[in-house]
Write a structure and sequence with these properties.
Strand order of the largest sheet: 5-6-1-7-8
CATH superfamily of one domain: DNA polymerase, Y-family, little finger domain
Helix content: 25-40%
CATH architecture of one domain: 2-Layer Sandwich
Distance between the termini: 45 Å
Oligomer: single chain
Bound molecules: magnesium ion
Length: 362
């Protein structure tokens, strides 16, 4: 049976909320993010700011250099959470199968919805209209037979648009789709593909599953399906928590390994508190340390371990540090939960907003 999946994604969510609440900002380049003087990071910006090359996850100071008139608004978490709840309650009017990906993004499985005569296209249009009227912000939607294609489709007519890929259009659509649009294909994999002469999904379809496994490791198996537009993952209403972590961005770079090691007890303390606050039986599978260097390149080192252990964190920190031997702007410590180790990892860009906001909110 063909499923009907809608991927909903607000346009410049945080910035849109701020502009809605202060109409004087309309038409000006606006970003939500941390203080440029305190090494803040841009979480979201509007399209006027994007014209200058400003984008999310960029240092606020660099954004300001690109666009001297950029208005940078500090994030107001509560407001975004409230808007997110309001939007999710609209989603719930159409289906109980809603999978949140971040505050402003979700998959909806409307295969069995009776709303709008059962038309996913009409449901998406109605949701967009309601979000516009009830919340005064805009949302883009992608409609397709699976999550992968729905996610690609929501980006197709962004902002304030929607795009439908009906089952009979899948093979044409996927054939010309650039490999960079496949989630899981980052810069490194894409470069490897381009070097092999692979640019779009049609080029990938030539390879057998064994060849793809050979070329791209365990990801090859998923690639084989995705490049054919196949993605059977269900819409799951609750994600099992996969990890618990804390991180800190320092006002001044930590200049050496010794300085990083000295910060670990404080972070470990915070991590223990966070685990405690999560109020659940936690079964630790791995420990990890994340370092982001002065040049914004990050690395994560992890090790199988069943309990919190400062000495292990120190060793991981050393391994990570020695990968670049450069001053460190951000340190993070975390645990991966045992029951979750085998779950399919969500691609990073799904968590972008959360990840970047964590950087300056902690
Ligand atoms: Mg969004």
């Amino acid at each position: 049976m063909n499923r009907k999946i809608i991927h909903c994604d607000c346009d410049c969510f945080f910035a849109a909320i701020e502009i809605r609440d202060d109409p004087a900002l309309e038409g000006l380049p606006v970003a939500v993010g941390g203080d440029p003087g305190k090494r803040g990071v841009i979480a979201t910006c509007n399209y006027e700011a994007r014209k200058y090359g400003v984008h999310s996850a960029m240092a606020s100071a660099s954004a300001r250099r690109l666009c001297p008139d950029l208005i940078i608004i500090p994030p107001s978490k509560n407001k975004y959470g409230e808007a997110s709840r309001q939007m999710h309650s609209i989603f719930k009017d159409y289906t109980s199968l809603v999978e949140p990906l971040s505050l402003d993004e979700a998959f909806l499985d409307v295969s069995n919805s009776k709303k709008c005569k059962g038309s996913a296209t009409l449901i998406a249009a109605e949701i967009r209209q309601r979000v516009r009227e009830e919340m005064q912000i805009t949302l883009s939607a992608g409609i397709a037979p699976n999550k992968f294609l729905a996610k690609v489709a929501s980006d197709w007519n962004k902002p304030d648009g929607q795009f439908v890929i009906t089952p009979d259009k899948v093979s044409d659509f996927i054939a010309s789709l650039n490999v960079r649009k496949i989630y899981g294909v980052g810069k490194v994999t894409a470069t490897k593909m381009y070097n092999l002469g692979i640019e779009n999904c049609q080029d990938l379809q030539v390879y057998s599953q064994a060849e793809l496994l050979n070329l791209f490791g365990s990801f090859g198996e998923r690639l084989y399906s995705l490049c054919r537009g196949i993605d059977d993952r269900p819409v799951v209403t609750e994600h099992p928590r996969k990890s618990i972590s804390v991180e800190l961005t320092y006002n001044n770079d930590l200049p050496s390994l010794k300085h990083c090691i000295a910060e670990l007890p404080v972070l470990l303390d915070k991590l223990e508190q966070r685990i405690h606050r999560s109020n659940r039986q936690v079964s630790i599978g791995k420990l990890f340390v994340k370092l982001k260097f002065t040049d914004f390149i990050s690395t994560t080192v992890e090790q199988v371990n069943q309990e919190l252990n400062l000495h292990v964190f120190e060793q991981l920190c050393q391994t990570g540090y020695e990968r670049r031997n450069k001053p460190v702007r951000l340190l993070g410590l975390g645990i991966r939960l045992r029951e979750a180790l085998n779950f399919y990892q969500l691609p990073l860009d799904f968590d972008d907003h959360v990840a970047t906001s964590k950087v300056y909110l902690t």
